[in-house]
Amino acid sequence: NYSWNPGGGWTRQILDNDQNFTDGQGFEKLGLYPQYWWLDGGNGSGGDTIYTYSGNVPDENYGRWSTYIPRGKYDVYAYIPIASGNADNQGIGNAYADNVNYKVQSFSGTVYNTAVINQSTNRGCWVKLGSDYVWAQGERVAVQLGDNVSGAALRRVYYDDIAYYRTARPLWSLSPSGLTLPVGVVGGTTSNATFTVTNTGNLLGVGALSATNGFTTSQTSALLNPSQALNLTVTAPTCTAVGTQTSIITMTGDDTTATLAVSRVCNAAPPPIPATPTNPTLGISSDGRSLFTFAEVSNATTYSFSGTFDGTPLVFSSPVNARGSGSSGVVLAWQTTTEAADPVKSGKQLCIAIRANNASGSSTTTTPVCSTYRYYTGVSLQQVDNRPVIKISLP
């Protein structure tokens, strides 16, 4: 004998006078003789009640309440009404049937439990038909009751409210709140951060993960036991404009949903200043040629040079155009005097440094590389082998 409020907890209640079965829910008259059911205007749990008789109608006259319920673990209750008396004009009054069989079952016919309830001694009460039934998401379940019951004939077999009380279900939680991804720049790469999805409920569950506005999650679904947590990654798309990218991550499934707001600031890209050239070398050949080589920088447009000769700063006439990749070299030639007329340069230190340039700026200048200058009579270093020539002028 239970006194219970079906409005509490997670409950799906079928109204006692719901005979409109077009939606596949409510009371359905079944069996060989479904016409032997009557509506009583008595004071059931929600209003009217439905009843049949034991003994004076053919066997296999039965009906069932059914409904679709969210996934979870349930206790099932039935309400035994307080009858209205002689409203049916058949003189039966409040003569309740004794032990009747309430069958908890799936709508396909699988019987989970049969509870024997004495309606005479439980009138006006909620009675428990069974506990810990786990049903799939959106499963249609039912309680069946027929007229082939124990006790004297011509006793009423009542149907009233059936309530499904959900005692366990999965519950989703997403953290941390207001997740912020690393700052990005326009035209840069994607960025990501870790978030956690947790089943804070008390039943195994599976949920689908999604994100809005071009963000993606490392998994599209997760199966979690009670209290289990899973670390996942959310990735923001490439920044296309200055501002803040936002997204909502959603975990939904098993009649429960959780959301998490994420954001990523997009800044303007800084100038793509070229890198410093590498592998600078300075060689002076046996015939007096001065060759400076280096590895090119991919985003350079020109290279400029600086240096000293015998400690005196040199003046370079113009930059050299970049090719974009590979190893390059330039021939150094004197501008103010011809080689053949100035043998006094031989044996002195020549030091050269380089930097890369483009429209956004210049790289740092390399550490100068030096070599002892050698002079040979009659050798001209102007435009040797069609190499670019950097003219060197003494101030």
Give a structural overview.
The protein has 395 residues and is mainly β. The protein is 0% helix and 51% strand. It has no helices and 33 strands. The strands form seven sheets. Strands 14, 15, 17, 19, 21 and 22 form a six-stranded mixed β-sheet that branches. Strands 25, 26, 28, 30, 31 and 32 form a six-stranded antiparallel β-sheet that branches. The chain has a five-stranded antiparallel β-sheet with strand order 2-5-10-7-8, with no helix packed on it. The protein is rod-shaped and about 135 Å long.
Overall pLDDT confidence: 81
Largest sheet: 6 strands, mixed
Proportion of residues in extended strands: over 45%
Q: Compute the separation of the termini in Å.
A: 112 Å
Number of strands: 33
Radius of gyration: 45 Å
Tell me, what's the shape?
rod-shaped
Low-confidence stretches: 1-9, 86-92, 378-385
Number of discrete helical segments: 0
How much helicity do the residues have?
under 10%
Q: What structural category do the secondary elements indicate? A: mainly beta
